[in-house]
């Protein structure tokens, strides 16, 4: 079930974000100070409290398994707990965002080819628009919804 996130979800949201970001982004950024210093559950939960109005979670049998952060027509973040990846949860959240919020663009780390392929399978295309991920030397690429 996809539902609006609540304060009670904050620790679970933070847990998913911290774990998945360490697994997916540490190999790209090679920044242990961030991955194991700054990136901690309690501060992430506090940071995301103000973002709650724009976050939806996928819950199954009382377990939050993934989340999507939407602002206006942009998918800002999509994260699925590592243990539940490959079960279609990301696809359901992404299709929800397209259908219910008419999202039409997002940014992805250029080296995160797995995520880019996922978005392409769901009707988005890589554009020529790039920018640096803040504070890094890595590029973000913009993907736009095809046919809009």
Kindly summarize this structure in a few lines.
The chain has 148 residues and is α+β, with helices and mostly antiparallel strands. It contains 5 helices and 7 strands.
Q: How would you spell out the order of helices and strands?
A: EHHHEEEHEHEE
Measured between the Cα atoms of the first and last residue, the distance is 28 Å
Relative helix content: 25-40%
Number of helices: 5
Strand order of the largest sheet: 1-2-3-4-5-7-6
Percentage of β-strand residues: 25-35%
Mean pLDDT: 92
Major beta sheet summary? 7 strands, mixed
Spatial shape: globular
Radius of gyration: 15 Å
Structural class comes to: alpha+beta
β-strand number: 7
Unreliable spans are: none
Task: Characterise the protein shown here.
- The chain has 148 residues and is an alpha+beta fold.
- It has five helices and seven strands; from the N terminus they run E-H-H-H-E-E-E-H-E-H-E-E.
- The protein has helices spanning 10-29, 32-38, 41-49, 89-101, 113-121; strands spanning 2-4, 55-60, 63-71, 74-80, 105-109, 124-132, 139-145.
- A seven-stranded mixed beta sheet has the order 1-2-3-4-5-7-6, sandwiched between helices.
- It is globular and about 40 Å long.
- It starts with a strand and ends with a strand.
- The model has no long low-confidence stretch (mean pLDDT 92).
Q: Characteristics of this structure?
A:
5 helices; 39% helix; 148 residues
Secondary structure elements and their pairing?
Layout: E1 2-4, H1 10-29, H2 32-38, H3 41-49, E2 55-60, E3 63-71, E4 74-80, H4 89-101, E5 105-109, H5 113-121, E6 124-132, E7 139-145
């Amino acid at each position: 079930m996809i539902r609006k996130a609540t304060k009670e979800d904050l620790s679970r949201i933070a847990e998913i974000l911290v774990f998945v970001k360490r697994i997916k982004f540490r190999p790209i950024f090679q920044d242990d100070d961030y991955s194991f210093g700054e990136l901690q559950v309690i501060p992430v939960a506090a940071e995301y409290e103000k973002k709650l109005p724009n976050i939806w979670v996928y819950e199954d049998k009382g377990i939050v398994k993934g989340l999507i952060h939407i602002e206006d027509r942009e998918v800002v973040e999509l994260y699925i707990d590592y243990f539940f990846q490959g079960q279609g949860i990301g696809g359901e959240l992404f299709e929800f965002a397209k259908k219910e919020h008419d999202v039409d663009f997002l940014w992805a780390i250029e080296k995160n080819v797995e995520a880019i392929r996922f978005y392409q399978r769901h009707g988005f295309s890589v554009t020529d628009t790039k920018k640096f991920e803040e504070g890094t030397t890595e590029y973000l690429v913009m993907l736009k919804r095809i046919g809009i």
